[in-house]
Design brief:
With 203 residues, the chain is of the alpha/beta class. It contains five helices and eight strands; from the N terminus they run E-H-E-H-E-E-H-H-E-H-E-E-E.
Length: 203
C-alpha cells in the first residue's frame, strides 16, 4: 500500500477526515513537492491539525479545510485530487443525524442505495473515490466486515463496475494498527483509470 500511494512531484493530496492531521503531515514531510489538503469536521481537531502544520513549517503546502464530508460537493471540485488518503470514523449509520438525507445524497450522486445498517466508512470510501482525478489513487484503512456484509454488496459492485478497486490488503490480528480498538482491519486501494482489471486481494 505504501508503494501504491507514493505521490509524484506537484501532485495534490487529500487527507479525508484528517483528525489532527497525522497522515497529511507525514506525506508533507516525506514529499516536499506535493500540496496537501486536510478536510476535518471537528473544530478542535482541525485547529490541532493547523497548529501541527505551523509547528512543522509546512506553510501553504498543507492546508486545513473545515467541512463535513457529507457536503463535500460544495467544498471542493470532484475528480481534482491525485491522491486521497483516509482513516475514516467507524460508526453505524443507525443513530446518525441526517442519515436519511445522507443515503439519498449517495443515491443521487452515484446511483447506488446504501443500507441504513451500513457503517459510515462506506460513505467515505465512495466520496473519496469521486475526488480522484484521472489516474489518481486512494488508500483507505477500514474494517473489512463490509467485504462480507449485506450492505457491502452495493459498495463492492460500485467499486468494481467503475473500475476503481485495485487492491485489498487484509491485515492479520498480529499486525492490527489499533491496539486499543477491537476491530478488523484492511487497506483498500483505489485508482481512477479507464483500464479495468481484477483487484488484487492479499491476506
Amino acid at each position: 500500500a505504501a508503494h501504491f500511494t507514493v505521490p509524484k512531484s506537484g501532485q495534490l493530496v487529500l487527507d479525508l477526515g484528517c483528525g489532527c492531521g497525522v497522515i497529511g503531515l507525514i506525506l508533507a514531510y516525506r514529499f516536499a513537492d506535493v500540496t496537501v489538503c486536510c478536510l476535518e469536521f471537528q473544530e478542535d481537531l482541525a485547529a490541532l491539525a493547523e497548529e501541527n502544520s505551523r509547528r512543522n513549517g509546512f506553510g501553504e503546502r498543507l492546508g486545513v479545510l473545515r467541512g463535513d464530508v457529507r457536503t463535500i460537493a460544495g467544498l471542493m471540485t470532484p475528480e481534482s485530487y491525485d491522491l486521497v488518503v483516509c482513516n475514516p470514523p467507524y460508526r453505524k449509520f443507525r443513530g446518525l443525524p441526517g442519515k436519511d438525507e445522507l443515503v439519498e445524497q449517495v443515491k443521487i450522486n452515484t446511483g447506488i442505495k446504501i443500507s441504513k445498517t451500513a457503517n459510515l466508512y462506506t460513505f467515505f470510501l465512495i466520496k473519496g473515490a469521486h475526488q480522484l482525478a484521472d489516474g489518481g489513487r486512494a488508500a483507505f484503512i477500514i474494517p473489512y466486515e463490509f467485504l462480507n456484509a449485506d450492505y457491502g454488496r452495493v459498495v463492492k459492485k460500485f467499486l468494481l463496475d467503475q473500475g476503481f478497486l485495485r487492491k485489498v490488503l487484509i491485515l492479520g490480528k498480529e499486525i492490527q494498527p489499533f491496539s486499543d480498538v477491537i476491530t478488523t482491519t484492511c487497506i483498500v486501494c483505489l485508482e481512477r483509470t479507464k483500464t479495468k482489471s481484477p483487484p488484487d486481494v492479499q491476506v
